[in-house]
Amino acid sequence: MMDRRDFIFYGAGGTGALCAGFLGGHLLSGFLHSKEPLLRPPGALEESEFLATCIKCGQCVQVCPYYALSLLDIWHGSSLGTPYVDARERGCYLCDLYPCVLACPSGALSHETTEIKDVHMGMAYVKRIDACLAFLGEEVKAEAVSRMIHRKLHNDRERAVAERIADSVGNPCSLCADLCPHPSPLEAIAMVQLEGKKRAPQIRSGCVGCGVCQEVCPASESVIEIVPRVGYEELYGGQK
After folding, report:
1. Which of 21, 65, 193, 217 is deepest in the core (most CB within 10 A)?
2. DSSP for 32-77?
3. Looking at the domain assignment, is residue 48 inside a domain?
4. Exposure of 35 by Cβ count < 10 A (0-12 exposed, 13-18 middle, 19+ buried)?
5. Is the separation of the CB atoms in 211 and 189 below 8 Å?
6. How many CB atoms lie within 10 A of CB 108?
7. Burial tier of 167 (Cβ tally within 10 Å: 0-12, 13-18, 19+)
């Protein structure tokens, strides 16, 4: 059962206001750094150091087997050409050996990133529990996941993800938890029972902000979003 204090897990009250601050920002002129909160690849140095160290070679983009990385365009000022993850389109699947890190020649993606404990991309939060299919007791519909199933797939890893999404059609939704790529996914996200038969995703302290939960959510509105460059304590205020 969920009490009033626990509701912070689901993006309500003060959490929503806090996240609004993190998600603020706007594009400045081409002579300045992008002020948008950007989801960087695993192992990215602190933003200022990352921008000073990244040589914009694109090697990390080239080796990503899930095509999760893109390069920023000219609208992002001197951040132009640096890699980021757009979790609305494709999250980071936390590949074994972190090929993006291994491919980085400058160390902008720290080569000390070898285990999940070294990854600190950001933190997920449930922005709209009222739009969550699990909370509403609705099943996954084919049309809701069609884009993810039928997009261009380049390799077996991508096809495996598409198959798992396709298998969810007609079943109660738990895609965000089922596809979490964390080596111990229950440390990062879990479906929890609320009042009655309602369920909802609960973000846990092991979350590293990879963005897969945001990518695979089939709801018509964005239920889960990622706040880049923050940790669990900072976002959730020490809640367990």
Report:
1. 217
2. SB--S---PPTTBPPHHHHHHH-----HHHHH-TT--EEE--GGGB
3. no
4. middle
5. no
6. 24
7. exposed
Of 121, 128, 125, the C-alpha closest to 230 is: 121
Q: Which of 133, 146, 138, 137 is nearest to 221 (CA)?
A: 133
Domain span at residue 207 reads: 121-230
Number of domain units in the chain: 1
pLDDT band at 31 (very low <50, low <70, confident <90, very high): very low
- Decide: residue 83, CB within 10 A, 0-12 exposed, 13-18 middle, 19+ buried: buried
pTM, 2 dp: 0.84
Spatial distance between the Cα atoms of 80 and 2, rounded to a whole number of angstroms: 44
Q: What are the φ and ψ backbone dihedral angles of 43, each rounded to 5 degrees?
A: 85, 0
Asked whether 118 and 78 are in contact (CB, 8 A), the reply is no
Is residue 20 in some structural domain? no
CA atoms within 13 A on the CB side of 213: 33
Q: Which residues pair with 209 in a beta bridge?
A: none
pLDDT, tens only, 135-168 = 999 999 999 999 999 999 999 999 999 999 999 9
In a domain, 37, yes or no: no
